[in-house]
Amino acid sequence: MRVENGADRIVDYSRLFKGKKIGLITAPTGLTADLVSTIQIFKDNFHLAALFSPEHGVRGNLAAGAEVETYRDPLTGVPVYSMYRKDSKRMTPEMLDEVDLVVYDIQDVGVRYYTFIYSMLYAIEDCAKAGKPFVVLDRINPLDGVTVEGNVLKPGYESFIGNFPLCVRYGLTPGEVAGMANDRMGWNADLHVVPCKGWERSQLFPETGRIWIHPSLNIPRFETALLYGGTCLFEGTNLSEGRGTTFPFEMIGAPFIEPERLADEMNGLDLPGVKFRPVYFTPTTSKFQGELCGGVQLYVTDLRAFHAVETGVTLMYTIKRNYQEFSYLPPIRANSRPFIDLLCGDKLYREGTLDLPELLESFREESRAFSLEKKKYHLY
Fold first, then answer.
1. Strand partners, 47
2. Is the pTM of this model over 0.85?
3. What is d(CA 29, CA 10) in angstroms, rounded to the nearest whole number?
4. Where are the alpha helices (DSSP H) in 59-100?
């Protein structure tokens, strides 16, 4: 059976949109299976009154972290309002005055650090306060809807890379996360989900037959998304996570790393579903721009056996043990937590009170509990 996302089923749910001034939160992944933009579908068939831009812009023309200003979409003439401003990631009452309901259509990667899911949750809360209906055009979780990894984000560690108590790999679709948050946070939003069709929870993205559209520039391949849950942790350290190379989040390194030594040690651990290759690379942007780095490239050899979080944490602890140059980055702003704490959703990595086996077992326990808890919100 053909796997369809909510965007492929807009016409079937036209009753939600007819006669309404629609505000659409979207990004370049807001496409049907035939690669037709949902922007164009709403523009041609309904009253598209506004576009709301998350990180990277609705057309994907902005770099990670770049602030988005209000402008008009050159292809449709529809005003684009920023949801990624320096002072706020929220929808303002003035923005919401322009529309009757808000629609969300962005492909997520199923990892807690990825910011689009929080743009959605902020918008649901803002719409609830304003009395505006909210519609999620649901999309499959590319990492499947069953597998859960990592710890749950703890109170006091909320940020734009983790603002709801999810595990790192949480095994839910955006529509399911929306339902879970709306229930647990007591927002009482007028929430509607246009569901996927033909997707089985156990399916990884390559098994769906759909075309991979990179959700952001540094997630170019499905394999990158699979690795991201573990290798994104290095954003909180003084190692390069591969930004500025052709393999972001697939290569980890720094000028002080000895590639062959690190690869040999990691391969000697015989971690499931992954192999490590010694590499040298010179990032063109980000950390160590223009400097030669040594490191490892990760290759997923078994999609089902691979555990991204445990692999990433093990790699980080191995480097920390072997290289005194390793460090966690300081807080980005005064009075904020170190970035590694925000990624962890806890202080466990930086504090180091648990050894690696104890840490990983505590993560497994939290994952098992979350797996049971999330089932009541399953739509598939």
1. 21
2. yes
3. 16
4. 93-96
